[in-house]
Amino acid sequence: MFAAVDLGSNSFRLHIGKYNGDAIRVIKSARDPIRLAAGLDSKGYLTEQAMQVALDSLSRFRDILADYQLEAVRVVATNTLRIAKNAAEFLPIAEQAIGYPIEIISGEEEGRLIYMGVASMLRLPNEKRLVLDIGGGSTELILGRGQQIERVESFGIGTVNQSLAFFADGQITAAAYDAAVLSARSHFEDAAPPYRPQNWSHAYGSSGTIRAIAETIERNGLGDHRLSYTSLEALKNCFVEFGHVSRIDLLGMKPERAAVMVGGLAVLIGLMQELGIEVIQPIEAGLRMGVMWDLQLRGTRLDRRDQSVHDFSQRFHVDQLRASRVAETATSLFDMLKPTSDVLSQYLHWSALLHEVGLVVSQSGYHKHAAYLIENADLSGFTTREQRAMSMLILGQKGNLRKISDALLDPDFSKAVLALRLAVMFLHSRIEVDLDELRLKMKSKIELDIKHDWIEDHPTASYWMAKEQDFWREIGVDFAIRTT
To answer: 187-204: per-residue pLDDT in tens?
Structure first.
């Protein structure tokens, strides 16, 4: 069983699913409509009240999760925590409340996970499709064929911010709707061409807002009863006739949804106008299902992050032989150092494979360029936290260690940095490493036993090793090198 927790801008949601060999069946769901995006103040900070409501929800989710024997749990946060200026301060207490790490994912990664969830439900390998997801704080457009994603983009417009911007006082007028729709179109117009109907055969709406709009249209017999432009216009006219959010009275519309649905409808109308979509099919699948499928794939070693690293290294013309050599040596040295856990081993491997991507910018300071690229790139499958850890490893591959001194307080991270630095040094010195002839320890000090022949056969090796000793001693770590 797997659990996916989605900390969205409008609602916090939880799915617990069981994998049965060809599908994941949801056996438990929970939802708290906390409207986190509305809890951002004028300066972009989450208010104390908003954070407390969020923590109460996370504590409730923790109790639910505790009732199940779960193989893996993944908690992802989306747009509001991406943009909140005090997210870094809120995250540790939020993690304590739910009892699991929280990953703030990029909009593009959110889109990819949404598509995974939709594709797993449809099982149509050759269908060219567009998937739309309108969340509380962002909207994702994903173009794909079958399981393969061809294009994904995230836009900073959603149900909550559009409702607050144009219907903040609850008043619903035709003029306000026209302005809200025009605003929505402006977000999508530059990106629209690839997503127009000639590039796909079916359009699907995966978000709770889109499903709720579709249900309201059907139950109230609006338009042609489908999620079409005609039906959306009919629903809009109903809202305008009601005149105020508090007076909306439609079958299938929950009171807490009405406040954000008026803004969500404006976004959806704007999308359909700008992209030329005639009808959308709502689907009960999306981010949480995608997260669970991603967990299942990781468990079977079909990790999207491997492909992401490969694609990124190809894009920046990394020398694969050099990268593979450093990765193999670094991970072997890390194992030799006996870390307390193997959590960092995979990140060290990926970091080593990407350690020279900065060469595409400049030979000088390439490690700094590489670190920046890895931290800021759109790497499918990776979280912001994972990319930051890899960036720090890559930044620490050479030069002084003061720039990553805080990270070196973690003993296992120090061992990973040492392993990568030595692997890079051996590469630059052209030393063919035979690990059976090398001894390496790192406790209160670093001890390296190396063959004397390695030094004699590679003139620059002694220079690099002396420099390495100096760098570690600068941060108070003794480094003893013995030749045998």
So the answer is: 999 999 999 999 999 999
* Identity of residue 69: Q
Please tell me the predicted confidence (pLDDT) of residue 189: 93
Rounded distance, CA 275 to CA 184, Å?
Answer: 12
Give the CA dihedral 160, 163, 168, 171, nearest 10 degrees. -150
3-class secondary-structure state, position 71: coil
CB 388 within 8 A of CB 372: no
Task: Choose among 133, 132, 237, 222: nearest CA to 178.
Answer: 237
Q: How many CB atoms lie within 10 A of CB 147?
A: 13
pLDDT for 124: 85
Distance CA(353)–CA(427), nearest Å, equals 13
3-state secondary structure of 155: strand
Which residues are within 8 A (CB) of 96 and not within 5 positions of it... i.e. 6 or more apart?
none
Sequence-ordered list of residues with C-beta below 8 angstroms from that of 181, at least 6 positions apart, any chain = 266, 269, 270, 273
In order of start, what are the domains of the chain with their CATH numbers? Answer: 2-105 (3.30.420.40), 108-289 (3.30.420.150), 303-483 (1.10.3210.10)
**How distant, in Å, are the alpha carbons of 43, 137, 465 from that of 55?**
21, 19, 50
Q: Give pLDDT tens digits for 104-161.
A: 998 889 999 999 999 988 888 899 999 999 998 899 999 999 989 999 999 999 998 8
Q: Taking the CA atoms of 310, 314, 320 and 325 in sequence, report the sign of the dihedral they define.
A: negative
Residues pairing with 171 in the sheet: 244
pLDDT at 455: 73
The answer on pLDDT for 301 being more than 70 is: no
Report d(CA 372, CA 361) in Å as an integer.
11
pLDDT in tens, 216-260: 999 999 999 999 999 999 999 999 999 999 999 898 787 777 888
Among 310, 319, 205, 331, CA closest to 268: 205
Give DSSP secondary structure letters for 254-292: -HHHHHHHHHHHHHHHHHHHHHT--EEEE-S-SHHHHHH
Distance between CA atoms of 232 and 142, rounded to whole angstroms? Answer: 22
